[in-house]
Amino acid sequence: MAKKVTMQKIADHLGVSKFVVSKSLSGKEGVNETTRERVIQAASQLGYFTQKNAYVQSPKRRSLTGEQDRNKQSVLVLMPNIRSQTQDSLYWGKIVDGIALALDQEGLGMVIISEHRADNFVNVLNPDGLLGLIGVGQISTSLLLEVHRIGLPLIMIDHEDALIPCDTIFANNIDSMTRLVNHLIGTGHTLFHFIGNIRYSRSFRDRWIGFRRALEENHLMVPAIGDELLLEGMDDQMLRDEFRRWVATRKESDTLPTAIVCANDFTALDVSEVLREAGLGIPADISVTGFDNIEDSLRGVTPLTTVHVPKEAMGRAAVEKLLNRIQNSAAPLEKILISADIVHRDSVGKPRG
Length: 353
Fold this sequence. Notes:
Layout: H1 7-14, H2 18-26, H3 33-46, H4 67-70, E1 74-78, H5 92-106, E2 109-113, H6 118-124, E3 130-136, H7 141-150, E4 154-157, E5 167-171, H8 173-187, E6 192-195, H9 202-217, H10 236-252, E7 259-262, H11 265-277, E8 287-289, H12 296-299, E9 306-308, H13 311-327, E10 335-338, E11 341-343
């Protein structure tokens, strides 16, 4: 009977500590990419991913059809480390937590790869040890094409690509944003501005569409896409500097909106800080909303009105869809929308004047 491949065995094989192996396989910070690749490649060669509970420990096991499926016990979570897409993120980390919990309940292992280059990814991946893949967040088309070429079932969370046919999981961004803006309109607001880079992700674009739809349905003016919507910058300092100039210009011309709708909470927190620096009260002078309901949205100087995206539920839904796809590969592809609810806090009030 073959001996179990443990993290310690991988560590001994590479001459590194078990701690380094554990961090590399879980996708946590503190290990450089070269070391992480070496660990994943060694784990693949030694057969770590083909054994039961490769990373997540649980006595349970889902019954899968086919001898080949029963011999594959791990799911690969692909979350390229670009922008803020890391396990430590208050948004993306919660999605990964949901994936981990769902796999744990099914008795399946999990390994996270943060590689964003297609050539490196192919070198470290052994598809024989994997049930399938779950992609989290923005992933380049070149990397997705390599994944698709390998032929493993793929589920994507909060991202889609026209060239890659697969099941996808999203929050219901359009309808949720429409409800949020309708709430602002019901409070009396008629002058709006949207802050966020709609080219950053499909979710941001859908949130802009929901914002625009609410204004159009209420016969209110929709700011043109080219009209100072700050659609290019996502870097925190760049956004703050540009927004600071925008606020100064609008204050001088007395053309500030009464409500600023932000594409996510991170943006809304930056926007709120700049507005306070400019001597504007929230919500006395201007209302601000976010989206996602990260933990920091409650901890700000003025707690944010936002939309709660059930991040862990998105992760769990991806695992459920992957296992269903494995059992029924011929079923039509699905785009699953998870409902999101408005969280009412102190950053919204009646318009000034």
